[in-house]
## 1
Amino acid sequence: MGKRVCTIFLMITLVGILTGCGNDTEGGSKKTLEVALWDENISGAVDASIEEFNKEHPDVEVNVTYTPYANYFTKLRTSIGGGSGPDVFWMNGPNFSEYASYGLIKDLEPFIEEDSDFSKDAYFDSMIDLYSHEDHLYAAPYFSDIVGLFYNKRLFDEAGLEYPDETWTWEDIEEKGDILADQEEGVYGYTAYVVSNQAGYYNLIPQAGGYMIDEDKTHSGFNSPEAQEALTFTQDLIDKGISPSVQTQIENHPRDMFMSGMIAMHPEISVNAEMFYSELGDELGVAPLPAGKEEGSIAHGIGWAMNGDTEQEELAWDLIKHLTGEKGNQFIAESGFSIPAQESMSDLWVDSMPELDLQVFIDAQEVSFPYPVSQNTIQWQDIEQAEIQGAFLGYKSMKEALDNVAREMDIILESEQINE
């Protein structure tokens, strides 16, 4: 048992926060599967897939638990570490490698090899890459999320500006953002995101020609000139009043400010399209992220993983197939929640909200950057976010912060190589 696994189990002080792995009840006449995720907005699609599953398995009870994201992985680690936990559950990029590396989730490759109904070729490459460990798939792709530029048409119309399009660059953000900002009215031109790395500087650093982590996952790129350029651009937008300050972003989430008409342009993941449209209606528009030296945006998404200790692995696999198969993807697409992981179902999602140009997000897959991950992503992300936010709050220079991130991150990455 590795040091990291020991650490996980030593951290366990409570057992059973999430219901234990599926089991037989009523003398073996009824089987149960426990399912865990964090976003109830997708409950309709999840329930529809479970209904399809129950048509084939009427004797199986599927219990679904929704836990707010802030507590989700803490509870998941506790329950799995205690030998229980859900049979099937959501996994994200930052936590994936840790769970896969230490056997907390099952390798799905043996199931795939024996099952002609499941083909990895059906899914976006970015999703297969994200949830593969040593070339084996450990979480079945469910939906993709990628970053685009949402904007408020009313604010653009009032300023007499043309809407953003694929020709826009960083210079347009600064130029038009300055025109759109109105301090007297409390309106900002753009969200220079600091409280969200995925929607913020994780896009700007590769657009500047840099990277957060190299392809070999051995070195950080946070101390590069490109990272400095991206974060300096962010700081300039804040200093000029084009973007809310970091303190304001902490106190009032930019997502809420955008929906309240206080921000004209807001980079955000595709999952928020439905929520934004329900709030802003015809005032909402969407465009590709403005380009730096390079165009593109960060690609991420959610996968369904199987508990490494589940006692119902064949049933759990069949449920995962129903959730992530053609019908499951159809349910996601038609709900408007986000881009289904199966590439062939993209058009259904685009058609779910014809008032918006959702094709922007599909096209962005072609020029996307991979979400940065390693075995211990959460460890260095905590350092990264604390250092960078500290710089924006004035506690240190940006160069010092980025140098600190790179140094600490390289130590973590080196330890990962030693422990392999």
Note: Confidence is low (pLDDT under 50) at residues 1-20.
## 2
Amino acid sequence: MATTEKNHYANGIAPADEKEQWGTRAISHESGEEQAIKGEPTQLLGHDIDAGLDPAEVKRITRKIDFRLIPMLIAMYSISLIDRTNLAVARTANENQFDKDLGTGKPNGMEYNIVTLVFFVPYIVFELPSQFGLKKFGARLWLGSAVTLWGFVMLGMGFVKNWQSLAALRAILGFFESALFPGAAFLISCWYPRRELAVRNVIFYITSAVAGSFAKLLGFGFSQANGTAGLAGWQWMFIIYGIITVIIGAAALIWLVDIPTKAVFLTEEEREIVQLRLERDRADSIPDSLTWAKVGKYALDPLPWLFALSFMSVTTSAYALSFFLPRLLTNMGFNNVESMVLGTPAYFWAIVPGFVCGRIADRIPGTRGAAVLFNSACIIAGTAMYSRLPMGMKAARMAGIFIACGGGNANVPLIISWQAVSIRSQSKRAFCSALTIAFGGIGGILGSTLFFNKEAKIGYPTGVYTIIGLNSMAFVFAIILILWFRWKNSRADRGLMIIEGVEGFRLQW
């Protein structure tokens, strides 16, 4: 391509014959709304987003973004998953010293369930308000500070004397953690075109989940310091993980990047190429403010609620395994150490269905819903296998854990990415990310409370049947979304409607 033509594209300017097909938007300083500007093309929906760009240059910039954005988010979310779910390790290690010290081991008691539950109340309540803070202060400062502060909360957990104090700190932990997952999901969606989102979300989430699972073994190792300096093993686990969290938060304050328009690690030309690709893909590279009026408008759209309920269903399964997998394995006849070791391979297996489904969803049109359907079926079948098969069928029950764990951990990023590619405008994306992940917190409440101690010997039927029922609902919702999206695209193709307010935008089913 000629240098002059390349510079036209790098600066967001199309050749003359394309200008009639593009539109442009900017933000009104008075209203904060997107407004059209004549004669300055910034979007080319329905066309190749890389037309006129050097493929090698696009690939280099994408890899540059990958290296700077994804590893830091993985580190942050890994420690987030570890810090919210390491109660299972603390409770199982050192011959249940945790229960003895804090009073959570009563046969029919709900103390442990309460300790796990209270995390999710502020986590859900502050999901949406956290997005206002993210937009105001920027991702680096907002998310980095949140991680650092909850690291100090983790340190405090190492010195509690009863379950009530631990529950209070868990609530504070939920408050700070409410900023991270919706913020990270929003940030990823701001950087990549729709055809690149599923794989990035899968890498971000499943790598974090694997690290979180492996950390159970590491946490068990930390707990072997039992008695050192007069502290129990579970206390050392909280203290060491608290220190690690503070270090990661401090690193995020230095290294984490913000949205493309604020990216100082890219040159001006590189930023323009990133924004041009996003404009051509979905016409929302320009930030628009999130207001309560917009929140009310977006809340009337049924689409975010279908994704949110589907996400709640899958997270119920994922959290249940995070919190109770060591106990499930113990009930299957494995000892404490074996329960820690045998739970980790299932999370490594989750990389396979997650990456394969993510790759297919990004590369092959019409497969996003099919991927969600497949993994929902895996959750249902796997849950039935590990819970309902006879106790003597250990291998088959273990296979069920692998199938359920793979389906659950694959569907989390697949639903997040499907939601992100089905909407446009940064404010709506911020709202939908917060809503979806807030309902994921409701799934966390269900996953942490429906597995009752008194039902351990009969296979936790309440929790198991709830997981199967909810993921059956998610399966039906995926079918509804596929049919709905195909119907809307058909109407848009015939000129009977405009999807998401922009001509040329099509839903990916």
Note: The radius of gyration is 23 Å.
